Request: fold
Amino acid sequence: MSKFTTTPLFNRMVKFYLEASEFKDPATGNRVLPKIYNNGSSRSTKTWSTIMLLAAFCDHNRETPLYIAAARDTLVDARKFLFKDFKECLAHIGIIS
Reply:
């Protein structure tokens, strides 16, 4: 994967993920999978920062089977924007053409 310029939100999500990766359920002692939710105004880099995080995470875990879910507030928003945003962002950071 090519290098890309990160955003402050991307950096905060990476920091949170690394810290949250050590969390354990006190009742079972099992590792708790981190979940990241971003909300805020439009045009605030949430979507692209999240897509960049997912791309970097997948690149770093190439040999690991992963289950990743991405969602938006509504199914209409997911259908209308999410796939288009993924394609644009992945092209921008050089993963697809």
Summary: The chain has a mean pLDDT of 86. The first helix runs from residue 8 to 20.
